[in-house]
Amino acid sequence: GLEHLTQHQGIEHLAGQAQQGNQAQPQLFKADVELLLAGDQLLQEEIFGPATVIIEVADKAQLLQALQNMNGQLTATLIADEADLTEFADVVPVLEEKAGRLLLNGYPTGVEVCDAMVHGGPYPATSDARGTSVGTLAIDRYLRPVCYQNYPQ
Asked: What phi and psi values does residue 4 have, to the nearest 5 degrees?
């Protein structure tokens, strides 16, 4: 994943040491928002490990447009104060449709939704390998709850 980001013309590597051995090195990239708006699939792929891609937007309208162009996610994190929550309240409904867990001023663990993922959670995930709270079998569930972690009332 890091190689693909590094080789992409619209993505700039801002910081990070070269990977060596089994120890992952933190990496920071910046991507042009136009890539996301154009549907570039590279920006939709998860990179497991300490890698971050920053996408700068011009204004709230472009932020909403960029978020609407993102694929579904397990989590979405907002780093915000009360004024931000008021000014950007219309971001939350977009994120509700994109993620199953919304975090405010916190950081999630990362888990990819893929065939190999069986992750503990509510029954039947923990005691029955035919079901999972995270893997592709989770897509078969009919209920789509959204968790608001650390949110004010």
From this structure: -60, -45
Q: Strand 27-31: give its sheet, edge to edge.
A: 11-15, 27-31, 51-55
Say which DSSP state 137 is in.
G
Query: What's the start-to-end Cα distance of the chain, in Å?
Result: 39
Q: Does the pLDDT of residue 131 top 80, yes or no?
A: no
Q: What is residue 84's predicted lDDT score, i.e. its pLDDT?
A: 94
Stated pTM of the model: 0.67
Rg of the chain on CA atoms, in Å: 17
pLDDT tens track for 31-73:
999 999 998 888 888 777 888 899 999 999 999 999 999 888 7
Answer left, alpha or beta for residue 59, where phi above 0 means left and psi between -120 and 50 means alpha: beta
Count CB atoms within 10 A of the CB of residue 120: 10
Spell out where the chain has E strands: 11-15, 27-31, 51-55, 73-78, 99-104, 147-149
